Amino acid sequence: MQAVKIGLVLILFSWPTFAVQTQTICQAPLHVAYNDWPPYSWSDEVGEPLGLDVDLLKAFARRVGCVLEFDKMPARRSHQLMHLGKVDIMMGASKTAEREEYAHFSVPYRLEQVGLFSIDNGGVVSLGSWQQVLDSSLKLLVPQAGWYGEAYESSKRSLAMHNQLVESPDLLKSVQMLSRGRAELAIGDALSLPFIASQHEKVHLFRHPLRLTESDIHLMFSRATFDEARVRAFNDAIRGAAEDGEIASLLLKWEQISLSRIEGVSQKSRGSDEPIWILAD
């Protein structure tokens, strides 16, 4: 009986300690900076943040027990304020040595892919290799800013010489030019390009099997406000969400939205059933 009493006392004294530890991970709301990059992040008509990365971060924060406050601002200002400790978290980040000077990085929570697209039922055969693109003589729309892989960079001059390269200022313009027949193919982010096409231009795109690049995507945490315990807590949350399927579920949801059919558009295969996600290590 005495042993039972001692055991109960130990449980009662150890439980509050655990509760305090979980509460101290986030004593105040965490400030999240984001900008318009649909379908990963943007804001609705009343200013509420939306998107895949927003949903994922909310899921991770819920597991950690943290409250989030989202602030929309240009990317450059986000990095400046993170350096000063006035922004705690940024989403959808690629890891670089320069950024590591002022930010911790989470384990990767998804992949960013650059894909190849054409108008659905536009008569373009499925393309699975970069050599097929070069041999096709088809014109290719490429946004002026961005990294689209070694294969494209090494072929850029040749594409231009053979009048196959058409540059555009951004993804929206690429979609508009593609729909108007300025080119037969377009490259861009594997989720963002079809999302812009379906949601803004009411055009459905065919996604070819070819992938030009794949890279890990992380959360960034300000070194001024995040200690190792906080980083570890979020990494554990990401791993937990990967293991129980929550990340996969949210990624599938937003992939379906991005590749959704417009009424009256054909039901042609979208070109690849390969999911666009990564499970955290």
TrEMBL record:
Tree of life domain:
Bacteria
Species annotation: Shewanella amazonensis (strain ATCC BAA-1098 / SB2B)
Q: Which UniProt keywords apply?
A: Signal
Q: What is this protein called?
A: Extracellular solute-binding proteins, family 3 protein
The residues forming the signal peptide are 1-19
Record lineage = Bacteria, Pseudomonadati, Pseudomonadota, Gammaproteobacteria, Alteromonadales
**Classification via InterPro entries:** Solute-binding_3/MltF_N (IPR001638)
Task: List each copy of the Solute-binding protein family 3/N-terminal domain by range.
Answer: 29-258
Enumerate the transmembrane spans: none
